[in-house]
Each structure stands twice: as C-alpha cells, then as structure tokens.
Design a protein that fits this description.
The complex is a heterodimer. Chain A is an alpha/beta fold. Chain A has 7 helices and 13 strands. Chain A is globular and about 65 Å long. In chain B, 25% of the residues lie in helices and 30% in strands. Classes of the chains: A alpha/beta, B alpha/beta. The structure holds flavin-adenine dinucleotide and adenosine monophosphate (AMP).
Amino acid sequence: MEILVCVKRVPDTAENEIVMNSAGNDIERDDLVYSVNEWDNYAVEEAIQIVDKVGGSVTVVTVGDEDSDEVLRREMAMGAEKGLLATDDAFSGSDCKGIATILKGVVSKGKYDLVLTGAQANEGYGAVGGMLAAMMDLPYASLVNKVEVKDGKLVIGREIQGGSQEMNEITLPCVLSIQTGINEPRYVGIRGIRKVSSVEIPQLGASDLSVDGGSVGNAGAKVRKVDYFVPEKGKGAEMLEGSTEEIIDKLIEILKANGGLK
Amino acid sequence: MANIYAYIEHKEGVLDDTSMELIVAAKKIADGPVTAIVTGAGIDAAAQAAAKIYPEVIKLDSPALAYPNAEVIRKALVKVLPSDAIVLVAHGPFGMDLGPGLSIKMDSAFASDIVGIDGTDGNLLKIVRQEFGGVVSVHATCDISKGAVLSIRPGAIGADESKAASGKITDKTGEAGDLSANRKFLEVVQPEAGDVDITKADVLVSIGRGIEDQENIQIAQDLADAMGAVVSCSRPIVDAKWLEPARQVGTSGNTVKPKVYMACGISGSFQHLGGIKGGFIIAINKNPNAPIFQVASVGIVANILEFMPALTEKLRG
Ligand SMILES: Cc1cc2nc3c(=O)[nH]c(=O)nc-3n(C[C@H](O)[C@H](O)[C@H](O)COP(=O)(O)OP(=O)(O)OC[C@H]3O[C@@H](n4cnc5c(N)ncnc54)[C@H](O)[C@@H]3O)c2cc1C
Ligand SMILES: Nc1ncnc2c1ncn2[C@@H]1O[C@H](COP(=O)(O)O)[C@@H](O)[C@H]1O
C-alpha cells in the first residue's frame, strides 16, 4: 500500500510556554521551539505499521518553508521512505482550504492508496483532511483510532463521545484523519535523524503542483486572523499564595470545608 | 438575507444540548428565521422537539440515514440546501466529520471550533477562536458571502432554553437524492469497563501531562490514598498508556461529578473540561496563565512534582 502522510511543523508547547508579544497582537514568536504536530506522529506511526503488515511505502509531505525540512527528516527517521516539501511564496498565509488545495496537487502527482492526516493541529481547525478528501472525491473518516486492512478495504474505528468507537468499512483509496492514542509512536533519537540528514527532499512549488497561486495563500483565504489576544479574565480562581507550608494549610482547610477529605 | 441552517444532533428522539446553542449562534450572525435540519430514520419525535426551538424544520427521514454517517448526510445536504446557505454544526465528533467536506462541496467558507461571534462587517463574519488548547484567543474573519459551514464549540456561546417556537416541519426526503456512500457504518463499540469507576468518586485527584513521567503516577496515587480520593487523568496520560481509559475525564472519556476535583498539571482544554459537570475545582499548575485557572474555584501556582508529595506528607501527619 502506498501511503501519503501530511505533517505540519508547529510550536512545541512542551518546550515553550505560549505567551503574548509585547505589542499584544500576536504570540511571541522569537525563540519558539518547533516540532511535528502531535497528531501527525500518530499518523506516521500508523502508516508505518500498515506498511509493515501489508507492504508498500510511506511518503511524508508538508506545506511550509525551508525550516519544515526538519520535521520531514524526523518522520523519515521514524521509517517514512520519502519526504516532499511543498513550498512557494504564493503558499504563505493559506487557510485550511489553501493547504488542502496544495496537498491535492501533491496527491494528484502520485499514486496513493491511502492519505493520512492528523485529526487537528495547533490551531485546532481539524479541517485539512476532510477538505482534501472532498476535493478529491475520496471517502473520508475523521478521528480514526483503529485501522485494519481487510479484503482490499479498510475497517476503521472512529472515536465518538464517551469513549465509544464507531466502526466503519471504507473503500480505498481514501483519506483518514488520525486521533492520538491509536498507537504508540516510536522514539527517534539523534542518530536516527543523522542517518537521513543527507537524503534529498524534493521541493515542489505552485507550478510543479499545478496550483493556481491566486486560489491559495493569503489571496485565496476566506478565513483570516486579525489578532491574538488573551480574553478579559473573569472571576477566575481564588489563588492561594504564601509559602508552600501556608498554602498547604489553607488548602487542607478548603478541602475539609468542601468534602475533599475522608 | 442570510439563509441560516442548524444541523441538529439527536439520539432516540432526544435532542443534543447543542440544539439549543446553535440557534443562539445563528442569531449572532443575522436576525432572521433559522432552519433546523433533522436527519435519521423514524424521526418524528426529534423533528417535533426541534420545532419547539426553531421556526422552520427540514426533515430527512430514510432508513439510509438511520445512523448519522457524515459522508451520506453531506451528499443529502448539498442537494437540499441553497448554495449560499450558512450551516451551523456543533464542534464534536460528528461536526468534525461533516463540516470540512461539506464546505468544499457547497463551495463555501469553513471556520471551525468557534467560541464567539461578534456580528458581521459587510460580508465578513467576525469570530473568536482559540489556539494551543485555549492558552491564547484569536479574532478572525470569515467571508460568508458565498455561504459558510461553521462549527460551534459546545457550551461556549450559551443556550436558548425557552422552547417557545412552534415551527413548521417540512419533509424534504424526496429531494435528498442518492444516499449511498463508500463509507459504511458497521456498529458502535462501547468502552470496556475498568477496575475503577471514576464517575462515582466524591473526590478525584486528576493528573495531566504535567506529571511528566510514568514513574510519577505513584505520587498522585499516594496523594489520593492520603485524601481518600481516586486518581483520574487527562487524555495524554491514557494515550501514553500510563493509566487505563476508564480513568480519562473529558468528552471522549468519562463525565464526572465529584464534590472536589483536583486538577494537577492539567491545562484545561475544552475537551477535558467538557467531562467535569460541577464540583469544586482546585487547580495546581506551574503556569499562572493556564486556562484551568479560569474555571477553577481555587488555584495554586506550583510544581506538582514537589507540591503533591508535600501535601501527602502533611496529610499523613
Ligand atoms: C476530538 C478530541 C477529543 C478529546 N478528548 C479529550 C478528553 O476526553 N479528555 C482530555 O483530557 N483531553 C481530550 N482531548 C485532548 C485535549 O485537546 C488536550 O490535548 C488535553 O486535554 C491536554 O491534556 P493536559 O492538560 O494534560 O496536557 P497539556 O495541555 O499539555 O497541559 C499540561 C499542563 O501541565 C502544566 N505543567 C507541566 N509540568 C508541570 C509541573 N511539573 N507542575 C505543574 N504543572 C505542570 C503545564 O503548564 C500545562 O498547563 C481531546 C482532543 C480531541 C481533538
Ligand atoms: N502545512 C501543512 N502541511 C501538511 N499537512 C498539514 C498542514 N497543515 C495541516 N496539515 C494536516 O492537516 C491536519 C489537520 O490540521 P488542521 O486542519 O490545521 O487542524 C494536520 O494534522 C496535518 O496532517
């Protein structure tokens, strides 16, 4: 099975606290540490596990700038065979539809049986996979937490409310967005990344992908960010302050008063 | 005049709470009639319930719609709705499945997980979203001139519980066209019961990614033992297989109603908070800006790996 996995480079919230800049209109972007979107790691791991079972190969693609090369190499160190970097000045400022349009160009240039995305990325849209599927007229399922290859089709589980799982049969080729917890993404060490450091990663621009520059990027975006802000704090919590000992004493009183101690 | 539609989720004739929220969102976009869309098989009760909230109801009633398969419903909506429709869905497992693809097929705009709507400026809808799990908010605009699909975060915009409407129900099943799809629903598998039932606990010591390491789970267990509490957790702890799924609190886990919920190293994402229904929330987090402090009654800025053992020590006396 030929599998394409879409991955995104995002600020790593485990490595840096996201805070507002001094102008108060954007997050502080200096010195941010980036990594692969958490969900995308699960998608790549799932693709590798499928290929381990039924054969084929895994390609990872990202739409981004030169720096995005590093996330492709990380996923290649996990076991993806090929990496593709879709990059063009015309792509910058794309909304989800723009990203999906660019990815459609990438999918159309290959011959993939399965396309995987993460369920969502740092901005919480959860949109690119479903849009890409609809653009390509491929069947789609979101929040997938189980994949089984069966008689040339897939049996997939979708996560729904309360921990229940919705089982579906879906034909190939198709697009799935993968939810965390589906597997345990393998660890990649520095050595693994070093091994793929010189592998060539083709760069694809708008014309290579037959993408009309006006339909993507800021020009084509229907959704645009105006500014970042931190909402007016409401009542908020009563913050306990003082030395650890003082805080603990206050907390124990509060616990007693609210039935928090047996 | 905007054509606004709200897709109503329901189960066994009972509407989801978001049915009373989408109409509030609609009114923030434009003042005018809002149409509910109810799909399923044998859905008179649900359609009638929707008519108590919405002035107009479109009903699509067919055995092919018995289970809400987004791939099938998308095809039907494209046939039934005008091309400039503004379609509202709840931002949950169904809305996430339906919304993005529907916007492509309707050739309209898509904005998801909307937490606030500040009216319109010409063709631009002014929306509020969050990023990075709620740590920062964003003002954004969405061009709705050619219609839109908008997914609204459950619980974020308020509900109209008056049920004062006496809406007209129109059956449009005949217009829905071919209801087949390449994705076929098989069954719903219920979660396995775990050894513990966190939904029955009075006091929960709940841990999140701030616990940092599997070995530190014991710190939480020790504290829970000293308090007479049960350990629960956020999703990343279950994803990492450090605790079993039965201990997860949130929209894709359990809904809990303890007397006291002590959130330790949990940021406070909406999916996590969606599983906490009442109770006195105490939050302990090293980041004073963590969103959990907005919903907690009592907050402590501390490193849980130091604070929890100190509290345990003190309780043991
Ligand atoms: C469809 C869907 C369904 C989901 N369902 C659920 C669900 O049911 N339940 C759920 O919980 N999540 C769910 N999620 C995931 C959710 O969006 C968040 O990713 C998750 O809740 C974050 O968990 P967390 O707060 O533990 O981790 P993080 O958001 O990473 O927060 C960790 C917090 O710990 C603090 N911290 C770190 N170290 C320390 C320390 N030493 N001392 C004190 N504080 C520390 C940090 O400041 C931070 O605030 C779902 C997501 C999706 C897309
Ligand atoms: N710039 C990008 N390049 C490649 N894939 C992306 C990009 N942005 C989003 N995706 C994919 O779409 C998924 C969902 O992202 P989103 O719709 O932005 O929440 C991610 O998990 C990725 O798989």
